[in-house]
Amino acid sequence: MGLLKGLLGARNLLLVIFVPLLLLPLPVLHPSSEAACAYVLIVTAVYWVSEAVPLGAAALVPAFLYPFFGVLRSSEVRPFVAQLPAQVPPGPVKGAQAPPIRIHPALPLSTCDPGQNREPSLGTEPIITWKDFQKTMPWEIVILVGGGYALASGSKSSGLSTWIGHQMLSLSGLPPWAVTLLACILVSIVTEFVSNPATITIFLPILCSLSETLHINPLYTLIPVTMCISFAVMLPVGNPPNAIVFSYGHCQIKDMVKAGLGVNVIGLVIVMVAINTWGVSLFHLDTYPAWAKVSNITDQA
């Protein structure tokens, strides 16, 4: 019993040490940029979900490991850290803004004499002091958002996202509804770490080719997958509103994962039911449209 308590007490330390070691065979046995990027992505995700280290520290993992494994150069990772203030969502820093001040229009006219030539005064106290700004600025969330952008850039540059997308071509032997369901589940997971435009750019062309192979209406897969790409609600890095909610400190990562997982499941069920009921009648998804054959004719020409 005492040993179990000791292990639980050292949980965070054990996760920090053993998670990278246990996953190390992935980039060692498969020396490729895709495997290295997957290694960094999984380690960072485990640190985020378990909160073994502060979120800001976990978000810096790609900044150190990407150059180490050669996924991205240091000069390519640096902008995500050096330009962090431009990436912070405006919500968390509203507390640092000055309160509204009502000034009568006659006040500046009575105090400013345009006829006098005086040097500007630089000794007055600012409306917002640096000390006040430091108290209200969510630096951890700023670094978290920057780390999310770095992960997305590495996934795209290394080819990991493209590799994941091409693995979907092996689903051609499944029924159309199963292909759509698995594709929706996959993109809802990927979009937690990769930006929506990048996810759409990678997956939609592959799904179009898969639809041609299965000889089904491409809209049957494209519509639900496009909707599920917006289901990034489980992690603070998923989208700026998540980061704003998390910055107030009233919830932990595990709370967001629990709530977000339920939202994802409900949304996935609604999308699948809708596309297989009124979606079929509205978009005529039970037929293979003539416009879907144009790409095949063009390719053969």
From TrEMBL:
Q: Which GO terms describe its molecular function?
A: solute:sodium symporter activity
* Membrane-spanning ranges: 45-69, 177-207, 219-238, 259-279
What keywords were assigned to this record?
Answer: Ion transport, Membrane, Sodium, Sodium transport, Transmembrane, Transmembrane helix, Transport
Q: What's its membrane topology? A: Multi-pass membrane protein
Q: Name one Pfam family in it.
A: Na_sulph_symp
Presence of keyword Lipoprotein = no
Q: Where in the cell is it found?
A: Membrane
Q: Which domain of life is it from?
A: Eukaryota
Question: According to its record, what are the GO cellular component terms?
Answer: plasma membrane
InterPro entries recorded: SLC13A/DASS (IPR001898)
Cell cycle in keyword set: no
Its main subcellular localisation, reduced to a broad class, is membrane
Q: Which family does it belong to?
A: Belongs to the SLC13A/DASS transporter (TC 2.A.47) family. NADC subfamily.
Q: Can you say what this protein is called?
A: Solute carrier family 13 member 4
